[in-house]
Design brief:
With 560 residues, this protein is mostly helical. It has one domain: Sodium/glucose cotransporter (Up-down Bundle), CATH 1.20.1730.10. Helix content is 74%, strand content 0%. It is built from 24 helices and no strands. It is globular. It is a multi-pass membrane protein. It comes from Nocardiopsis composta. InterPro entries: Na/Glc_symporter_sf, Na/solute_symporter, Na/solute_symporter_CS. It is found in: Membrane.
Length: 560
């Protein structure tokens, strides 16, 4: 992130703001200590004992994704591109969340696996399991570093603390509550953080719209700004994708972002899946992503819209859009708007909201890393067959190691001016090929264990090749176009390689694939209960998903 000159952005925080921040941190650490009481074995620490209600896991599901990139990155995209940024929510999230709920969760929850790599172990065997476990663990440390770096940058710029002090203090707080209470502490704090984030962003959006003359005023100002009226409609989104041709741009958004990247992220990313797997029943597990989809539809209105407001009302952003060099970049849009609009007191809530978003993202990465490293790497390949107590005691120490790793990768993140590009590249490396392996293995029983790991490795390699060609200028795409192409390449290569190798090698016998392949799994075992705590029309996953999908279509029509 471009760190601004101290006097340019320093917020005039008063005693009331610091008091609100201190109160927030007391609550966060208190949740960690309370969650510790319920931890008696490793399942409690890593998966909350599969005991949480759907509304808790649903809010945590969306809050785990509401990290630094969502707040800073999407408001930056809003300031730069306008409405096409909505695609990251309505095309690049909600359909995939519904697919996870209705199709994937019955397999995950029904097979009682403890992690996504463990599902890979049952379906494809140890080589695919190890490849997936290592790549996932590496991705979590890299992404946690992004959240930590942004959090430290904000504290540094707003409050004046040195960057290294900010980094260590932020890491220490997240480490404390995650190490104390495991996943339960992370999830309950994510619920708290979700409401703090909304309480911070709603007033900012309201005051910002008032400043520019309401929605009509915003439309007029955006139409008159560089980029013009194209920023007011989501489609075809040429500026966002970097494609000059509208058809290719729509294809890139729908296939690259909406299918490969989005489905790859939401359906195989254990950070998200872990929240659903912590719920108390199959029905609750299916409802978790759907409940999360409702706020996900509305979040762009308090993230993207403030970015658009900043782009036409904050003097530095107006100058930046006009091609000048005011000493800021688009990542600063949300902070500059806060500086201009928020009085003391409300400013403290907004600061707490920003810190909450970054901490929620980092805690989600740490808790998922804990589970995968302990179960899928350490227990499976390093120290086997120890009592459960041994692995429970390891949890906090793994958290400490992961936090130290995140401090290191935060410095890698500091070298990137556009963190959204960095994140999308990581997703194209790690999530896109994994989704191809998953989807083929789940619906094609002939796919073999050898194809499982070779397809993953070569799919990832193809995404890396596209990235290197883009960096070298051989593939000339601006925006996030290179990561969309890389994700598409990873998916296609993985599928093609897996099919060829499967036809050349021996598959597992059918009896070993029950519960792991759709056609071999009894349909009753994939159905959620509709009695007792799961009774009522408002708890039916398919009906809820239909409502969300209808709202998504309407949103795309209205803002398209």
């Amino acid at each position: 992130m471009h760190v601004l000159a101290q006097d340019q952005l320093r917020l005039d925080a008063a005693g009331v703001d610091y008091a609100l921040l201190a109160l927030y941190f007391v609550f966060v650490l208190g949740v960690g200590f309370m969650a510790r009481r319920s931890v008696s074995d490793s399942l409690d620490f890593f998966l909350s004992g599969r005991s949480l209600p759907a509304w808790v896991t649903g809010i945590a599901f969306v809050a785990a994704n509401l990290g630094a990139i969502e707040i800073i990155g999407m408001s930056a995209n809003g300031a730069k591109y306008g409405m096409p940024t909505m695609h990251y929510f309505w095309i690049g999230a909600v359909p995939a969340m519904l697919f996870l709920a209705l199709v994937m969760m019955p397999f995950y929850y029904g097979s009682k696996v403890r992690s996504v790599p463990e599902f890979m172990l049952f379906r494809f065997g140890r080589p695919a399991h190890l490849v997936n476990g290592i790549s996932f663990a590496a991705a979590q440390i890299l992404i946690a570093g992004v959240n930590l770096f942004l959090l430290a940058s904000i504290v540094n710029v707003l409050l004046g603390w040195p960057l290294w002090v900010s980094l260590l203090v932020a890491a220490a707080i997240v480490l404390t509550y995650t190490a104390l209470g495991g996943l339960s502490a992370a999830i309950y704090n994510e619920v708290l953080q979700f409401f703090v984030i909304v309480a911070a962003l709603l007033p900012l959006t309201y005051v910002g719209l008032h400043k520019v003359g309401g929605w009509d005023g915003l439309v007029q100002k955006v139409s008159a700004s560089p980029g013009g009226a194209e920023q007011l409609s989501a489609w075809p989104g040429n500026e966002l994708t970097g494609f000059g041709d509208s058809f290719l741009s729509v294809l890139g958004i729908v296939f690259g972002l909406g299918f490969v990247l989005a489905f790859g992220y939401w359906t195989t990313n254990f950070v998200e899946v872990q929240r659903a797997m912590a719920s108390k029943s199959m029905s609750a597990a299916q409802r978790t992503p759907i409940i999360g989809a409702f706020p996900k539809l509305l979040i762009p209105f308090v993230v993207v819209i403030p970015g658009m407001i900043a782009g036409v009302s904050v003097s530095e952003m107006v100058a930046l859009k006009a091609g000048e060099s005011p000493g800021v970049d688009y990542n600063d849009a949300m902070l500059l708007l806060m500086r201009d609009l928020l009085p003391n007191g409300i400013l403290g809530v907004a600061l707490a909201g920003l810190l909450a978003s970054f901490m929620a993202g980092m805690a989600a990465n740490l808790s998922a890393f804990n589970t995968v490293f302990t179960y899928d790497i350490w227990q499976s390949y390093v120290v086997k067959d120890r009592p459960d107590r041994y692995y429970l005691k390891m949890g906090p120490w793994v958290t400490v190691g992961a936090t130290a790793g995140a401090v290191g990768t935060a410095f890698i993140a500091s070298g990137y001016e556009n963190l959204m590009d960095y994140l999308q590249q990581l997703f194209s490396f790690f999530n896109a090929p994994l989704f191809a392996t998953f989807i083929l293995g789940m619906f094609w029983k002939r796919m073999t264990p050898t194809a499982g790991w070779v397809g993953l490795v070569l799919g990832t390699a193809s995404a890396v090749v596209v990235f290197l060609l883009s960096e070298a200028g051989v593939i000339a795409l601006s925006g996030q176009g290179a990561s969309f192409v890389g994700a598409g390449a990873a998916f296609v290569v993985d599928i093609a390689v897996s099919v060829v190798i499967s036809l050349m090698t021996r598959p597992k016998p059918d009896e070993q694939l029950v519960g792991l392949v759709y056609s071999l799994t009894p349909k009753e075992s994939l159905k959620a209960s509709s009695t007792g705590e799961d009774a009522g029309w408002y708890r039916k996953p398919w009906l809820l998903a239909g409502i969300v999908l209808a709202i998504t279509v309407v949103m795309n029509i209205v803002f398209g």
